[in-house]
Amino acid sequence: MERTVHAPWMTAPSTRAVVDALTAGGADVRFVGGCVRDALLGRESSDIDIGTPDEPERVLALLEGSGIETRTVPRGVAHGTVTALAEGNRYEITTLRRDVQTDGRHAEVAFTDDWREDAARRDFTINAMSLTADGTVHDYFGGRADLKAGHVRFVGDPATRIAEDHLRILRFFRFHAWYGKGEPDAAALEACKAAAHTIPSLSGERVQAEMMKLLAADDPVPALNVMQDAGVLDQVLPEAQGMAHLARLVAIERKVAQPDPIRRLAALIAAAESLAGKTVADRWRLSAEEGARLTALTTPEFAPAPDLDGRAQRCLIYRLGPECFRDLVVLEWAKETNDENEVAWRSMLETADAWEAPTFPVSGEDMLARGIPEGPEVGDLLRAVEDWWIEQDFEPDHAAMLERLDALVGTRR
Ligand code: ATP
Ligand code: MG
What CATH number was assigned to the domain covering residues 237-357? Predict the structure, then answer.
């Protein structure tokens, strides 16, 4: 195995500037965590984490002394983390730490200058490597070999590591979904099973972050199946009754859409009781936007069917918006167990791409100009004209709609 590794971001000017600033104080500074793992795989990294034996105040002083913008969050400095912003790139700089006390949810940490100690508190061997700017990999626990073998393995004894932080159960399945090959580590799986009941003590936000990343894996289904057999999925998502639906959705996404964790979650829970979307959105503290999307996809007001004609499709695209329409097309398609309607479903996706829904041209001002007083009647009339316009396949122009409006007002008086 080669001893060194190089990724493009390692030599980017912004990375150099941050590393040089931190090294100027004499510290041994290294890249840590996910970016090292991803560099070894030749994958791009979204965030770059840097470890240093220097304490946060010194990190802040060194960065500011070099003119690099910094950010800190409340408790970040106490916890040892400073963010550096350079040329639009973010670097999280964390002082080497060891856990002093843990309770399954939070850790009290102490700073250290021992790289091995910092690696030992990390969750999995593949996440516990560090990398110096010259490309030297420091691998205290066999992470490199595990990465190659697709073996997601805890650093240390799985049961002990899970007792320190129960979130590691979910992280185990998340990393297995992303980097695992073949059967999951047997000892880890046993420990996850035994501790599954501790999952409800975790905060919704932390669960959400792990589950969304798990659902974003290339194919999350094998890992979810293992979670189900281990009794873990029931603790985190008892609504997950649609594994086969999700499996078909993943296959369809490969042909026609980008993977999408909310859409995938919708497939997984759509067969559960009708409020499942809202229940999960609340429990996992999804953003208002994501929650609304999940609800719209699990309990749609109108759902596409393969026999819709062009006019009916345009009507749905207008009512749902093209994004939601596309999501529902692939979700409905994924409910089918054969490919009989593939041509029809694909043509609906093409319609959604090609057709731009017109804007409804009648306004409240038009109504007032016709002497219709403000009030609930305005909304009713507008909706009636809009329904008619949609029914006419958006053909009637503004003048025709005003005529229709006059006729409606006439019949109501
Ligand atoms: P991703 O690319 O998906 O963000 P990552 O490896 O960066 O993957 P993060 O959750 O961002 O994962 O965590 C960064 C690093 O911090 C991990 O690689 C791991 O070394 C360490 N880590 C994070 N959470 C924990 C935890 N709960 N227990 C132990 N170590 C952790
Ligand atoms: Mg990360």
Answer: 1.20.58
Q: Which ligand is nearest to the CA of 33?
A: 1
Domain with CATH 1.10.3090.10 in the chain: 155-235
Establish whether residue 235 lines the binding site of ligand 1, counting it when its CB lies within 6 angstroms of any ligand atom: no
The per-type count for the chain, helices as H runs and strands as E runs, is 22, 9
Distance of CA 124 from the midpoint of ligand 2 (Å)? 13
Report how far apart, in Å, the C-alpha atoms of 183 and of each of 125, 150, 400 are.
17, 9, 66
Parts of the chain belonging to CATH 3.30.460.10: 1-149
Distance from residue 92's CA to the centre of ligand 2 (Å): 10
- The segment(s) of the chain belonging to CATH 1.20.58 are 237-357
CB 243, CB 225: distance < 8 Å: yes
Q: What CATH fold (topology level) applies to the domain 1-149?
A: Beta Polymerase; domain 2 (3.30.460)
Residue of 32, 122, 138, 155 with the most ligand 1 atoms within 8 Å of its CB, for mutation: 122
pLDDT by 10s per residue, the chain, length 413: 557 899 999 999 999 999 999 999 899 999 999 999 999 999 999 899 999 999 999 999 999 999 999 998 888 888 889 999 999 899 999 999 999 999 999 889 999 999 999 999 999 999 999 999 999 999 999 999 999 999 999 999 999 999 999 999 999 999 999 999 999 999 999 999 999 999 999 999 999 999 999 999 999 999 999 999 999 999 999 999 999 999 999 999 999 999 999 999 999 999 998 899 999 999 999 999 999 999 999 999 899 999 999 999 999 999 999 999 999 999 999 999 998 999 999 999 999 999 998 999 888 888 888 888 788 888 888 899 999 999 999 999 999 999 998 888 877 65
Q: What b/e readout covers 33-60, taking b as 16+ CB neighbours within 10 angstroms?
A: bbbbbbbbbeeebeebbbbbbbebebbb
Take atom 2 of ligand 1 and give the residue whose Cα is closest.
34
State the ligand closest to the CA atom of 90.
2
CATH number of 155-235: 1.10.3090.10
Atom of ligand 1 nearest to the CA of 128: 20
Q: Ligand 1: which of 118, 123, 199 to mutate, most ligand atoms within 8 Å of CB?
A: 123
Tell me the Ramachandran region of residue 142: left when phi exceeds 0, alpha when psi lies from -120 to 50, beta otherwise: left
